[in-house]
């Protein structure tokens, strides 16, 4: 008996031993979990290996796809078979051609280097195709059939009753609009997205959304109701009171594909049979807010029994479907909620709620009142030094939420606008305010949070929080410059400088992939890229001459490359290559003898300028020649074009751009540099950009670094850089061995610096270094936002240098990670983690006296090069063991580092004698 038992145990052991150690999870289709409505005909599949051991690598995978989850084992749509490969991200679907409106279920299993047998099959995931082509649209575009009040333009209500006589197996709604829409079926909200269909270059690229509404459909009578609003389509946009940028009338198109359990199907479409009217939303605009009259609510209008005999009909319109594409990025959703932290009575006797955080969204509140009572909520970011709300920086944006009560108790919130605010002034409420009745709700794209970063320095941690809140507030379907004033536009420069930081904090792969399609859609025929995307500046009567500007238009080249680095997303480079090349071509044409020295440039926007009351140190403003800046970005983009061409195997382009790059640098040196390496602009930005992009010959770089460091000293250890110099300032100091100076600048607490706003109570990133001046007065209201993420681009350096997490260009997307932490600045600890498509990358260190403990986590199926701060390999232990005992070999060492090449797993290093 005993012998049998031990034999059984041994067999057990062998069988488990031969099974793969890792399991498979986090299945993504086009970077999203179970997306519904994808028009991508060859979707990319990704998964993560979960392993308990170190050094786990996938050696092969097998994918199976079927339209029926229950019989997925058949893999009728695609059976990949065993594919010898370590690829687990962006594996191309290679099954039968996809059908429209079809849900595809898929599974994967892997083999790894720790066993002979495959892992268990993963949990089942799926994606559902959208309509795939314009030809699959059956619905008609419909517009309200009544005469519109063209002043306020109340929100139209559109409705239709339909019957479903049999048991429904599935129901999918595909819908979009000219304007914003919110849909309900049988009184229930469709989906949890807001401000749909979002903002794109509508006439070229209008996204439709797809919803699984099976659970909302009754057997029998049903009703669908959709309310519309002006939104970005025809609402006021840009600061010149311009409306109707994309069109004058709101319209709706939608089709509901219903499949019954008996296999039959039918489609309910928007057509002449719909009805239209107006309701409680009397006015709704992005900048100016919303007016909601509860007395005009039409209770039950989205249910079948509602009496709509007095409603108008609708008009069908031949707008076509060729510009319609399924939503690719994450939709805008509601996220954090906050209660007021304080109720303030202002010197002017107003009641103001302080939500303690500058955020973007709106306020939902409960109120009891009489019919006709008018409640107005005004939204501001700051109180002035007297304690009154500061409205001036909103410029012409009213940012008001106005409610006319129906009497009794009701809960109210807007629908078709958003506000950038920390404080809300309330007018019209009688009686004491109960802060518990008020909730601020944040609105931003459903981008997954991927990054955590913290240090032993509370101010730096607040800076990190401000960067993340700035991103939340300005990643609302489009990367906007600011969320509060009469702007809120997709400024390309801001998006470009912030894009790498953005990719640390949140998953922005699809967010930017969608936005870049609008870069392509709105690119000028001469290749120039508009300063704002979606481009509304050139929809105004006074068209700008199609021109590009350095640092702004380069977003068309820089962001695709940054997404490739951060996510290994080769397709975004393929998708954008023609647009990238066209912009590069534009620069080549406007440059004379490879020097881009003419035409409008933003330059180093908002760099340090002296104003009265400026700090006593160096009074000189830091203006950098705009064309010196332009030449540096010309080189930067040309180098990225060379790399992109290399990646895509475009050898001719590689040769062309490599040669062009050398010429651009030569032209720079001739035009802007003395033979000794001094630049015509003696500013931090000039030296930063010239060093960052290797514009200066190698032998002259050390003097340039010295000039940069001297300049910082001259300004009493303050930065003076603007939008374009700031993102690279610390990187250049680190690259050339002056991380000590970078830390000085990071930890500087007086203006201009990153921590000065933090010291002044900021909870987001400010547009200007001194949006609020040291005397608590404000910079000119003509342009002072308290929620502008551009200067938050330092976040990238914080992750990549303080904790040292970085991509490897030859193996991007963290397939191979480089971790080289550079402790300093008196920090005693720092920790960061990043959710990559492979899993969690983590780096955290703690310094005590001359000892450092340093932990890294590397996802399965990836590798890493680790720089352990140490004087030599002997001084390093891993989990208390010497490197050799831990099975690790130093791959090299540099000043103050021991370099290790490691596989996946968690490693706990300690090093002493630092
Ligand atoms: C915007 C900035 C933008 C700049 C370019 C400003 O109005 O707010 O974000 O980069 O214009 O000039």
UniProtKB/TrEMBL annotation:
<dbReference type="InterPro" id="IPR012341">
    <property type="entry name" value="6hp_glycosidase-like_sf"/>
</dbReference>
<dbReference type="InterPro" id="IPR016007">
    <property type="entry name" value="Alpha_rhamnosid"/>
</dbReference>
<feature type="domain" description="Alpha-L-rhamnosidase C-terminal">
    <location>
        <begin position="804"/>
        <end position="878"/>
    </location>
</feature>
<dbReference type="Pfam" id="PF17390">
    <property type="entry name" value="Bac_rhamnosid_C"/>
</dbReference>
<keyword id="KW-0732">Signal</keyword>
<dbReference type="Pfam" id="PF08531">
    <property type="entry name" value="Bac_rhamnosid_N"/>
</dbReference>
<dbReference type="GO" id="GO:0030596">
    <property type="term" value="F:alpha-L-rhamnosidase activity"/>
</dbReference>
<dbReference type="GO" id="GO:0005975">
    <property type="term" value="P:carbohydrate metabolic process"/>
</dbReference>
<feature type="domain" description="Alpha-L-rhamnosidase concanavalin-like">
    <location>
        <begin position="345"/>
        <end position="443"/>
    </location>
</feature>
<dbReference type="InterPro" id="IPR035396">
    <property type="entry name" value="Bac_rhamnosid6H"/>
</dbReference>
<keyword id="KW-0378">Hydrolase</keyword>
<dbReference type="Pfam" id="PF05592">
    <property type="entry name" value="Bac_rhamnosid"/>
</dbReference>
<dbReference type="InterPro" id="IPR008902">
    <property type="entry name" value="Rhamnosid_concanavalin"/>
</dbReference>
<feature type="domain" description="Alpha-L-rhamnosidase six-hairpin glycosidase">
    <location>
        <begin position="449"/>
        <end position="802"/>
    </location>
</feature>
<feature type="domain" description="Bacterial alpha-L-rhamnosidase N-terminal">
    <location>
        <begin position="166"/>
        <end position="332"/>
    </location>
</feature>
<protein>
    <recommendedName>
        <fullName>alpha-L-rhamnosidase</fullName>
        <ecNumber>3.2.1.40</ecNumber>
    </recommendedName>
</protein>
<dbReference type="Pfam" id="PF25788">
    <property type="entry name" value="Ig_Rha78A_N"/>
</dbReference>
<feature type="signal peptide">
    <location>
        <begin position="1"/>
        <end position="20"/>
    </location>
</feature>
<dbReference type="InterPro" id="IPR008928">
    <property type="entry name" value="6-hairpin_glycosidase_sf"/>
</dbReference>
<dbReference type="InterPro" id="IPR013737">
    <property type="entry name" value="Bac_rhamnosid_N"/>
</dbReference>
<dbReference type="InterPro" id="IPR013783">
    <property type="entry name" value="Ig-like_fold"/>
</dbReference>
<dbReference type="Pfam" id="PF17389">
    <property type="entry name" value="Bac_rhamnosid6H"/>
</dbReference>
<dbReference type="InterPro" id="IPR035398">
    <property type="entry name" value="Bac_rhamnosid_C"/>
</dbReference>
């Amino acid at each position: 008996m005993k012998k049998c038992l031990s034999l059984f145990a041994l067999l057990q052991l062998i069988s488990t031993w031969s099974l793969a150690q890792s399991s498979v999870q986090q299945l993504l289709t086009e970077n999203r979990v179970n997306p519904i409505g994808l028009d991508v005909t060859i979707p990319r599949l990704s998964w993560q290996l979960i392993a308990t051991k170190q050094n786990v690598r996938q050696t092969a995978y097998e994918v199976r796809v079927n339209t029926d989850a229950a019989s997925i084992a058949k893999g009728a749509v695609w059976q990949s078979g065993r594919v010898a490969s370590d690829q687990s991200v962006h594996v191309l679907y290679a099954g039968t051609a996809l059908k429209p409106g079809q849900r595809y279920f898929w599974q994967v299993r892997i083999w790894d280097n720790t066993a002979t047998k495959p892992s268990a099959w993963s949990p089942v995931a799926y994606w559902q195709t959208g309509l795939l082509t314009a030809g699959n649209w059956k619905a008609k575009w419909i517009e309200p059939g009544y005469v519109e009040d063209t002043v306020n333009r109340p929100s139209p209500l559109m409705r239709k009753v339909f019957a479903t006589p049999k048991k429904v197996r599935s129901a999918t709604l595909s819908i979009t609009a000219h304007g914003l829409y919110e849909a309900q079926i049988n009184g229930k909200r469709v989906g949890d997205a807001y401000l749909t269909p979002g903002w794109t270059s509508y006439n070229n690229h209008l996204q439709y959304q797809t919803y699984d509404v099976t659970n909302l459909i009754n057997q029998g009578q049903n009703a669908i109701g959709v309310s519309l609003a002006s939104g970005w389509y025809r609402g006021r946009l840009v600061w010149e009171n311009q409306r109707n940028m994309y069109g004058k009338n709101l319209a709706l198109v939608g089709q509901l594909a219903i499949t019954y359990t008996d296999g039959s199907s039918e489609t309910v479409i928007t057509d002449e049979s719909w009805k239209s009217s107006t309701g409680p939303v009397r006015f709704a605009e992005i900048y100016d807010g919303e007016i909601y009259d509860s007395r005009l609510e039409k209770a039950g209008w989205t249910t079948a029994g509602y009496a709509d005999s007095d409603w108008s009909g609708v008009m069908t319109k031949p707008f076509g479907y060729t510009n319609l594409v399924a939503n690719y990025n994450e939709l805008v959703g509601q996220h954090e909620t906050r209660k007021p932290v304080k109720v303030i009575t202002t010197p002017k006797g107003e009641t103001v709620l302080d939500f303690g955080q500058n955020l973007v969204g709106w306020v939902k509140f409960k109120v009891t009142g009489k019919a006709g009572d008018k409640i107005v909520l005004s939204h501001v970011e700051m109180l002035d030094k007297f304690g009154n709300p500061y409205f001036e920086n909103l410029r012409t944006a009213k940012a008001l939420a106005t409610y006319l009560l129906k009497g009794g108790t009701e809960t109210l919130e807007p629908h078709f606008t958003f506000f950038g605010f920390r404080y809300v002034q309330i007018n019209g409420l009688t009686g004491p305010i109960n802060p518990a009745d008020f909730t601020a709700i944040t609105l931003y794209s459903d981008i997954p949070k991927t990054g955590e970063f913290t240090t032993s320095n509370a101010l730096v941690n607040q800076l990190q929080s401000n960067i993340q809140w700035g991103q939340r507030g300005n990643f609302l379907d489009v990367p906007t410059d600011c969320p509060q004033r009469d702007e809120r536009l997709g400024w390309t420069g801001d998006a470009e400088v912030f894009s790498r930081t953005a990719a640390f904090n949140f998953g922005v792969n699809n967010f930017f992939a969608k936005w870049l399609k609008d870069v392509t859609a709105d690119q000028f025929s001469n290749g120039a890229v508009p300063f704002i995307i979606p481009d509304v500046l050139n929809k105004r009567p006074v068209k700008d001459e199609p021109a590009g500007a350095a640092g702004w238009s380069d977003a068309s080249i820089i962001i695709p490359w940054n997404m490739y680095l951060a996510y290994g997303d080769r397709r975004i480079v393929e998708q954008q290559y023609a647009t990238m090349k066209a912009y590069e071509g534009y620069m080549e044409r406007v440059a004379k003898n490879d020097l881009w020295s003419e035409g409008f440039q933003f330059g180093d926007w908002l760099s340090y300028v002296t104003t009265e009351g400026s700090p006593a140190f160096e009074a000189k403003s830091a203006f950098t020649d705009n064309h010196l800046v332009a030449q540096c970005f010309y080189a930067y983009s040309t180098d990225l074009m060379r790399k992109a061409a290399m990646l895509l195997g475009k050898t001719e382009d590689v040769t062309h751009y490599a040669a062009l790059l050398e010429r651009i640098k030569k032209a720079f040196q001739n035009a802007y540099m003395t033979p000794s390496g001094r630049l015509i602009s003696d500013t931090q930005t000039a030296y930063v950009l010239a060093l960052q992009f290797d514009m200066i010959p190698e032998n002259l770089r050390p003097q340039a670094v010295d000039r940069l460091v001297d300049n910082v000293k001259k300004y009493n250890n303050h930065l003076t850089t603007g939008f374009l110099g700031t993102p690279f300032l610390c990187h250049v100091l680190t690259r050339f061995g002056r991380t000590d100076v970078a830390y000085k600048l990071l930890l500087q607490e007086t203006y201009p610096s990153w921590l000065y706003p933090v010291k002044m109570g900021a909870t987001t990133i400010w547009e200007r270094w001194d949006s609020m001046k040291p005397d608590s007065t404000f910079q000119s209201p003509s342009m002072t936002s308290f929620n502008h993420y551009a200067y938050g681009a330092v976040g990238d350096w914080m992750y990549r240098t303080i904790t040292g997490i970085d991509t490897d260009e030859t193996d991007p997307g963290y397939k191979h990670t480089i971790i080289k932490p550079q402790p300093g600045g008196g920090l005693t600890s720092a920790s960061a983690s990043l959710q990559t498509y492979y899993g969690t990358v983590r780096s955290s260190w703690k310094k005590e006296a001359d000892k450092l403990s340093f932990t890294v986590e590397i996802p399965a199926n990836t590798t890493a090069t680790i720089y352990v701060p140490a004087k030599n390999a002997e001084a390093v232990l891993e989990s208390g063991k010497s490197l050799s005992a831990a099975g690790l070999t130093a791959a090299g060492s540099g000043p103050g580092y021991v370099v290790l090449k490691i596989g996946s797993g968690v490693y706990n290093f300690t090093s002493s004698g630092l």
